[in-house]
Description:
Elements: E1 2-4, E2 8-10, E3 16-24, H1 26-29, E4 39-40, H2 51-70, E5 79-83, H3 90-95, E6 103-105, H4 112-126, E7 131-138, H5 140-147, E8 163-164, E9 167-174, E10 181-186, H6 201-220, E11 229-232, H7 236-249, E12 258-260, H8 261-264, H9 268-271, E13 277-278, H10 280-296, E14 302-310, H11 314-318, E15 325-333
Parallel strand pairs: 3-4, 5-6, 5-7, 8-13, 11-12, 11-14
Antiparallel strand pairs: 1-2, 2-10, 3-9, 7-9, 10-15, 14-15
Helix pairs in contact: 6-7
Amino acid sequence: MNKLGKQTIKFDAPPTIVQTASIVGPKEAQGPMAKYFDQCLDDEFWGEKTWEKAESKIIKETVNMAVSKSGIASNDIDFCFAGDLLNQCISSSFGLRELNIPFFGVFGACSTFVESMCLGSVFIESGAAKNVLCATSSHFCSAEKQFRFPLELGNQRPPTSQWTVTGSGAAILSATGQGPYITHITPGKIVDMGIKDANNMGAAMAPAAFDTLITHFEDTGRKPSYYDAIVTGDLGYVGKDILSDLAKTKGYNISSNYNDCGVLIFDKLKQDTHSGGSGCACCGTVFSGYFYKQLQEKKINKILLIATGALMNSTSSQQGESIPGIAHAIAIEN
């Protein structure tokens, strides 16, 4: 394990992503990515009495599915890294309380999935673990209830707003396997450009994605063309355009191979999702469902996945605070 430049780690024995799993809600099931997910739900409750209980069930079943698909016994998984958007990460801790695997609760807002994979990779490379589980979830209804307005109010959503993805993504990382491999990680710094609009997360998070993207290129000496795909977690249409424009100011043109999970998961016009998808599950499900299969089938061989997060809560917004952003990156290669 070597540190490159400011904040990138290169692995000598890169961990393999041996398997993934994804479950999504009904709106996601109507989007263009639907066929890539392992399971699509018919309703937001999935037989539970509350949205929060439904979200816990979603991450529980997604994790069980990932473990089952991997062929690795659950008692051979050394650690679990998981988190979500709800206060004190209750979706993960309640959903996975019967897992019986040492648990690290992780909060990176919508960057949680890649943050978990960063931490899991370091554990494997260090020899502290042979197999780790990384998972995350989000739910439109529970997130709206906590961060914005009660759904019953039917508040209008401005064009810059995004639709929190209902679903969960999980990945099993292992010290052994035939790839795809996590070769580098570039953990991000907190970047705050003073954006205060909780309905414009793309603008709040794009500067952090820009900082991590440029740092990764400078640390590794790589250029955008090295990757078949550069993918951000949930900047949506607004944030995606901002990141592309910011990258050009540093001489990096990413337009030919760059996309965003929040742009991909919904049909903006048919589904009225404004600036696209967001939430922990946005990156978690689109990577676990779509991009992992693309890597497995060698349709793409090198991907830079940059998950973005807004490090705020309802209290900080009510107190007039700005919205700090974070972005963590992993390089995944066959």
